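User: Working on a comparison across species. This one is Glyoxalase/bleomycin resistance protein/dioxygenase from Geodermatophilus obscurus. Can you predict its structure so I can line it up against the others?
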Amino acid sequence: MIDHLGLQSADVPAAVAFYTTVFAPAGLREAMRYETPGGPVVGICGPDGFPQLWLSPLAEGTERPVHLALRAPSREAVDEVFALVRAQGAEVLHEPRVWPEYHPGYYGVFFRDPDGNNVEAVHHTPPEE
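Assistant: Here's the predicted structure for Glyoxalase/bleomycin resistance protein/dioxygenase from Geodermatophilus obscurus:
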């Protein structure tokens, strides 16, 4: 159900160091990092290597909205979520599309929930072999 969680941080490198240090016994480590104009965005993974905790710079003043991604069983399901979000009148942040900068086959839609949190429905299409 939960695919990944994103937290905003006033100091991303310090937050990464904290999480990877205190959760080292659980196998947490940095999986990937990319730079943005506001600073680094870092994906932390467990033993499976799949980044499920994302740390990013403060993006909206002093507010720290949560980013919650829920896994969808198909791209069609992501599109259905999008249609229902629009029907509810919620703010759409990004319409459904492939996000190759995350990984090949990453298909998601981003929107705000009633409390302003950044919510995502995502499907991970396996790479063609």
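For your comparison, note: The first strand starts at residue 2 and ends at 9.

User: Helpful, thanks.
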